[in-house]
């Protein structure tokens, strides 16, 4: 697939048909625990491993806490590994150990874009107005075991929420909204995990573009999206703000060339999946301390999901080929000067940007398909969980959900 493909970015609308950004989703294996340690720089297998549940619609995002994996998307049912069909309204939970579909099944009247799981509950964000019949506008917290709505945690926006990140005391939200809990905001807001209204002290603002992803680290909150300015300061597509007051961290200034759809932050690097209408698709690595560029690899389509595991960077999206190192793209996204290799919707790179041999071949004979929407990693067990809109991986059945196991060095 060449050129710009409209990702599942959610616009300011109450129309459930308009989905969210390129967020994410992920998969589970029936056996996630490995008995042996995983070597550094180990790539995962090209073929999915183990029996996993099937989803009848897109899986946008998955998170895990302990043995439980939570998934959100546009599915209405999940088929278990023993063939049973279970009704689910876009939310489901699985056992990471056995692959069993659990009873957790909250009901949302719209679409959930992202999840965050913690001891106090599972946070849901997206484009919805009720959860289990209770009024909850775009933000909710439900019990991690029963799925019951937390009545003490009640917030609302006038737009949509694409991203959620947590610290020990706060929950951070990003999306496309100008009000949160009735207070003026510019696509970003934070609340106490105890449930109080939006925190007045944390109110960084983007006036012209939505936020697609957030990652909270000790150094601050990394913000990704469509913007060119934060707090009136020149910051295009990727920025770092203080986690207490929302001020721009001026020492971090990235040179990401296009819209950022997803980010992954490690001890030393920030990896960004990029997209956009003109020459946008690719994977970018910058230094975590100051944003200086480490590498930029161009793909012929958007990178909707990105992560790093055991020293390897994984990129997923709707691309079909990787441009040669240093190559450019046409306005439609095609590689100028040739392609280094074909990679159908999934690829991996070393920390220096060199292409590895990982080639999952997701629906290679289909042109118009969303591909990978998200990754979730179980680093210690060497499992990479993948979700999205694909239905096959290297010729094997993989209904929008698959797990890949580490097999050795690259």
From TrEMBL:
Please list the coiled coil stretches.
none
Record carries keyword Signal: yes
Which keywords belong to this entry? Signal
Which GO cellular component terms are attached?
Answer: cellular bud neck; plasma membrane of growing cell tip
InterPro entries, per the entry: Quinoprotein_ADH-like_sf
Signal peptide (UniProt feature, chain positions): 1-42
Show the PANTHER family listed in the entry.
BUD SITE SELECTION PROTEIN RAX2
What is the name of the protein in this document?
Answer: PKD domain containing protein
Which source organism does the UniProt entry give?
uncultured Nocardioidaceae bacterium
């Amino acid at each position: 697939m060449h050129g710009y493909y409209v990702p599942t970015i959610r616009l300011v609308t109450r129309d459930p048909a308009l989905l969210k950004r390129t967020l994410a989703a992920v998969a589970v294996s029936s056996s996630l625990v490995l008995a042996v340690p995983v070597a550094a720089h180990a790539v995962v297998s090209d073929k999915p491993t183990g029996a996993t549940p099937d989803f009848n619609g897109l899986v946008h995002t998955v998170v895990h806490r302990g043995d439980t994996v939570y998934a959100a998307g546009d599915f209405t049912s999940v088929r278990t590994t023993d063939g049973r069909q279970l009704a689910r309204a876009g939310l489901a939970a699985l056992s990471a150990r056995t692959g069993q579909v659990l009873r957790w099944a909250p009901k949302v009247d719209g679409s959930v874009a992202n999840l965050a799981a913690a001891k106090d509950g599972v946070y849901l964000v997206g484009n919805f107005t009720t959860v289990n019949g209770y009024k909850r506008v775009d933000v909710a917290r439900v019990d991690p075991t029963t799925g019951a709505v937390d009545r003490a945690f009640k917030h609302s926006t006038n737009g949509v929420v694409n991203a959620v990140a947590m610290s020990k005391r706060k929950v951070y939200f990003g999306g496309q909204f100008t009000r949160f809990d009735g207070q003026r905001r510019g696509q970003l807001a934070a609340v106490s995990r105890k449930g109080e209204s939006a925190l007045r002290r944390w109110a960084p603002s983007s006036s012209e573009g939505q936020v697609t992803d957030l990652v909270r680290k000790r150094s601050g909150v990394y913000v990704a999206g469509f913007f060119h300015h934060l707090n009136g300061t020149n910051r295009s597509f990727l920025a770092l703000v203080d986690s207490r007051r929302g001020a721009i961290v001026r020492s971090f200034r990235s040179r990401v060339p296009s819209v950022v759809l997803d980010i992954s932050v490690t001890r030393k690097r920030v990896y960004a999946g990029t997209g956009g209408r003109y020459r946008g698709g690719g994977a970018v690595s910058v230094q975590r301390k100051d944003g200086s560029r480490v590498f930029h690899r161009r793909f012929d389509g958007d990178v909707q999901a990105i992560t790093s595991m055991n020293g390897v960077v994984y990129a997923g999206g709707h691309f079909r080929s990787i441009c040669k190192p240093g190559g450019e793209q046409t306005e439609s996204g095609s590689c100028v000067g040739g392609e280094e290799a074909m990679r159908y919707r999934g690829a991996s790179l070393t920390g220096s940007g060199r292409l590895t041999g990982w080639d999952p071949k997701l629906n290679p004979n289909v042109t118009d398909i969303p591909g990978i929407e998200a990754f979730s990693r179980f680093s210690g067990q060497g499992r990479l969980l993948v979700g999205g809109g694909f239905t096959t991986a290297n010729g094997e059945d993989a209904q929008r959900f698959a797990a890949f196991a580490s097999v050795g060095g690259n």
